[in-house]
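RECORD TYPE: inverse folding
INPUT: structure tokens
STRUCTURE:
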């Protein structure tokens, strides 16, 4: 079991990312997180193959009025990384988030999730609902393996299977509307945690964990989360972008199946791709502040 850590110099002078790093040790692994502002916590969970850098446009706006935490999953960002795909599991990520919440004694959390942040974070919320006040669900899903996956995802999974050295920067470009207009220093920011292929095992592992057949153990976990969310009455804001072929239409499922999601306005982030935080981070942050303001009873 080889554990590696991205050299710290890789994270120097990243654009818009001058936040102080914080660290926790969870089950012998170093977990990095950002912790800005004061007040009730907003916990932001990233997806694949990004890291807390994805939330850099949102954090200053949210931290003006609240405490904002953005954690790097194991295998991403400044957190420790295994070199072998086999070391990564759904339970590893699930346990990491739960231990993180308990270690920091977080309560009354507004959870913000996107991509794999949703597959992990929403399950955590259904396991320890007493810790959460609100959910903000963006460009993610809860696949059970029983439904047909979008063709765009199948192509993406096949690409990951045959590509040991994932082109992180290219993936970010292709999954944002800004795309080729993203400055080189921003692309470097996304690539910073992954200087060599051996650092990318965690990024490769996640797409291969997505349930694509009935009976998948991860699918069973996510199916349970779905069932619990059907009786979820704390405030939920569903906010997807308009140009994401991977999660297109899933926003409607969340709005239909979660009772309290129907109480919130139907917000669609225009001219944004899969990584909507990169395309429209400031706009999203303001929507979250408005959501918190109109649901004070949740705290």
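DESIGNED SEQUENCE:
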């Amino acid at each position: 079991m080889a554990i590696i850590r991205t050299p710290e110099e890789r994270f120097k002078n990243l654009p818009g990312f001058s936040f102080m790093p914080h660290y926790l040790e969870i089950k012998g692994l170093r977990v990095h997180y950002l912790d800005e502002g004061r007040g009730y916590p907003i916990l932001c969970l990233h997806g694949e193959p990004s890291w807390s850098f994805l939330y850099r446009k949102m954090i200053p706006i949210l931290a003006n009025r609240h405490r904002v935490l953005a954690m790097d999953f194991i295998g991403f960002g400044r957190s420790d990384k295994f070199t072998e795909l086999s070391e990564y599991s759904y339970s590893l990520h699930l346990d990491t988030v739960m231990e993180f919440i308990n270690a920091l004694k977080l309560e009354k959390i507004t959870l913000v999730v996107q991509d794999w942040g949703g597959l992990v974070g929403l399950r955590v919320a259904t396991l320890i609902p007493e810790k959460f006040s609100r959910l903000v669900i963006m460009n993610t899903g809860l696949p059970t393996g029983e439904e047909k996956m979008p063709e765009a995802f199948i192509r993406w999974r096949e690409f990951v299977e045959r590509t040991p050295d994932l082109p992180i920067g290219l993936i970010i470009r292709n999954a944002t509307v800004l795309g080729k207009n993203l400055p080189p220093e921003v692309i470097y920011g996304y690539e910073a945690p992954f200087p060599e292929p051996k650092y990318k095992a965690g990024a490769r592992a996640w797409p291969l964990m997505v349930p694509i057949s009935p009976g998948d153990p991860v699918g069973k976990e996510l199916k349970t989360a779905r069932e619990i969310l059907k009786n979820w009455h704390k405030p939920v804001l569903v906010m997807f972008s308009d140009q994401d072929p991977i999660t297109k239409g899933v926003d409607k499922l969340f709005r239909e199946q979660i009772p309290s999601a129907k109480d919130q306005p139907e917000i669609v982030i225009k001219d944004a791709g899969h990584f909507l935080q990169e395309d429209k981070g400031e706009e999203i942050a303001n929507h979250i502040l408005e959501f918190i303001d109109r649901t004070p009873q949740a705290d």
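NOTES: The chain has one domain: 3-294.
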